[in-house]
Amino acid sequence: MTGKKTVAQLNVRDRRVLVRVDFNVPLDENSHITNDRRIVAALPTIRNIIERGGKAILLSHLGRPKSGRDPKLSLAPAAVRLGELLHKPVQMAPDCIGSAVETLSRQMGAGEVLMLENTRFHKGEEKNDPAFVAELAGLGDLYVNDAFGAAHRRHASTYGIPARLGTGRRVIGFLIEKELKFLGDALERPARPFVAILGGAKVSDKIAVIENLLRKADLVLIGGAMAYTFFLAQGRKIGKSLCEKGQIHLAAQLLAQAPNKLILPVDTLIASEISDTAATEVTSDAIPDDKEGLDIGPRTIELYREKIDSAKTVVWNGPMGVFEKKPFQNGTRAVAEALGRITARGATTIVGGGDSASALEQFHLADKVTHVSTGGGASLEFMEGRGFECLDILDAR
């Protein structure tokens, strides 16, 4: 997939360029953007188009509208923020299809930017409905996919439009090029030792990822609530810790498959409640029935630091504990800091997943790693080794 044509290879002058961006940004109760990382990530592609005289027409989803238009999920705040970052006005369309939108697209001048309204306000988006696709595709002459976070979904704006436009007019943007390079190189051509770190709540979400990484990585370090499913598979008592009893058999199989590669925590930080004032203790044995594991313990932190410190490539997806609460953030912070240290020495460090990225920003360490992926589910599927039809369909070099 890395052998794809990019936006730089398109002649965009005086052409309308449909750009699928990922502006699925977090909003507070007043519809203010709380994190603009995904908008910032799209700037190189947008600037490349408008600085060469193209007309950028942006498509994105935002959230999961339940039934049609939802003012709380409008992309208008994203258009305002993009305009601030570009230092030029970004026109906001009233919808993503319809005669008014078509008129706006026809009236655009060279170097202008038009933001279409949330594509998921229409059921045709997720259904990849041919009639919806035809209306969207009719708004532009060329197509650029720069939304890695949505590249694993065969929707109208990610698959239908490039399929309809045909070869010679459909390419990737610079963000997707960067994602494919870092994630692809890490998985297929890693500098070794290659260490993978997986956390988060569910083993079921990451079974295929673990299996794929056990084949490719030198070590796979496990943290987060998913560790307790593995503990249960070993016959250990986990108190009221989160776990997936339906995945115990698979967890046992993975442990048997690679006992020297799959590394579990050697101690656990436990508490009886999840709060900023919770009383905590550390255990290396059974977790009492009235307590739950909420972070990796200090011995595990030192063990994981040591493993990370020797690595030349690290892929991290998923926090080590409930990092949003102060008593349980040490494990996640320690991993983030360790990645920063080895990055400074020349190692390649790649962080995927929304929670891991949020943790990096909370600890002000996002600029200390090599690459922070903008795709949560997409980066996971990529690490599983799945192909992406939405990218496969785009023009090859």
Structure, explained:
The protein is α/β, with parallel strands linked by helices and 397 residues long. The protein has two domains: 7-175, Phosphoglycerate kinase, N-terminal domain (Rossmann fold, 3-Layer(aba) Sandwich), CATH 3.40.50.1260; 190-384, Phosphoglycerate kinase, N-terminal domain (Rossmann fold), CATH 3.40.50.1260. The protein is built from 15 helices and 15 strands. The protein has helices at residues 37-51, 76-86, 99-106, 123-127, 130-137, 156-165, 174-188, 207-216, 226-233, 248-257, 298-309, 330-344, 354-362, 377-384, 389-392, and strands at 16-20, 55-59, 91-92, 113-115, 142-145, 170-172, 194-198, 219-222, 262-263, 268-271, 280-283, 292-296, 313-317, 348-352, 371-372. The strands form three sheets. A six-stranded parallel beta sheet has the order 3-4-2-1-5-6, with helices on both faces. The N and C termini lie close together (10 Å).
